[in-house]
Design a protein that fits this description.
- By secondary structure, this protein is an alpha+beta fold.
- 38% of the residues lie in helices and 13% in strands.
- It has a 4-stranded antiparallel sheet, sandwiched between helices.
- A hairpin with a 4-residue loop joins strand 1 and strand 2.
- It binds iron/sulfur cluster (2 copies).
- The site of one iron/sulfur cluster has 14 residues, from helix 9.
- One iron/sulfur cluster binds next to helix 10 and helix 11.
């Protein structure tokens, strides 16, 4: 053990492995570090990982498939939050479609909380892994707001994981303003790690995955997703937060409807949910509707 620094209030004790790691890996090639990180993520059961240099926030490529105009204000850039940051690592965990289909429900409510907590702990573990190797790194919380009611007055967190995931090549924005992935459509939750390490970036995904079916627009119970405008059109975050706050009082937040009705994602094959009429034709798909109604009846108001 060795003492890294001392103050009357704080004593931070580094481990031998941290010192060894720093000495040994200060020469690690960026490609090798990336391989090590991917191995670590695999061991943590993380299926989605992306890497983006912080410079992409300053100069988002002009040929992006989504307009995303206006771009994010500078105070939300990773380098504004952690000036030493060189790379943002984004990790994602999927939410299972058959559970999302019950939304709003206690079932989706519990899954949402669990996935958020898992993302927080895995991101923290990755940051610690990098710190042990001598690369200063910090995790970011999945949901950085004290209460959903805060989002009604101030509908932004201090950092956007979905923009980070976009710049890390993990998907493209859908009309519903959620990041769509080829594998799970909008049914992936993301969080991020800021690191001082330089890691080879992943290419930005140039294909627009949204098929503009507008199912999300038609299904939103509060009309928060505009039909027209720049793509993706700005969702009325206040309306969406008000709905989520109401559902929270009933123990069945978040809403999740624009997530469940989106046809994009290979998970529709995995769960045999390719027929999109199943959400509107209750008679033909009676057994599914019965199952969802059953879940919704219990555990929440
Ligand atoms: S989460 Fe619900 S309220 Fe919010 S935009 Fe989607 S469908 Fe509308
Ligand atoms: S529901 Fe349709 S319009 Fe909405 S995001 Fe998905 S593919 Fe795009």
């Amino acid at each position: 053990m060795f003492i890294l620094f001392f103050s009357p209030l704080i004593v931070f004790v580094g481990t031998k492995s941290m010192r060894k790691g720093r000495d040994k890996l200060s020469y690690m090639k960026p490609e090798t570090l990336k391989k090590e990180l991917l191995k670590k993520c695999k061991s943590l059961g993380i299926p989605f990982v992306g890497f983006t240099p912080v410079e992409r926030w300053q100069t988002p490529p002009q040929e992006l498939p989504n307009t995303l105009s206006p771009w994010i204000p500078e105070e939300f850039f990773p380098q504004s939050i952690y000036p030493e940051a060189r790379t943002v690592i984004v990790i994602g965990l999927p939410v299972a479609l058959p559970i999302v289909e019950t939304a709003p429900s206690i079932y989706y409510h519990e899954l949402y909380k669990t996935v958020n907590a898992m993302l927080d702990s895995k991101a923290l573990e990755i940051a610690n892994f990098l710190n042990e190797k001598g690369y200063g790194s910090i995790y970011l919380p999945r949901d950085a707001y004290g209460d959903i009611k805060i989002l009604i007055g101030k509908p932004f967190a201090f950092f956007s994981h979905k923009h980070a995931a976009y710049l890390a090549g993990m998907g493209s924005f859908g009309h519903n303003n959620v990041l769509l992935t080829p594998q799970y459509g909008p049914r992936v939750r993301f969080t991020s790690i800021f690191t001082t390490a330089q890691i080879p970036p992943d290419p930005i995904r140039m294909k627009d995955l949204c098929i503009k079916c507008l199912r999300c627009v038609k299904s939103c119970p509060v009309g928060a997703i505009p039909l027209k405008g720049d793509f993706p059109p700005p969702v009325d975050k206040k309306l969406c937060a008000v709905r989520s706050a109401q559902l929270r009082e009933e123990y069945r937040s978040p809403c999740g409807i624009c997530i469940k009705v989106c046809p994009v994602g290979k998970d529709r094959e995995l769960f045999d949910r390719k027929n999109m009429k199943m959400y509107s034709e209750d008679k033909k798909f009676e057994r599914y509707h019965k199952a969802w109604e059953h879940v919704r009846k219990y555990g929440s108001k």
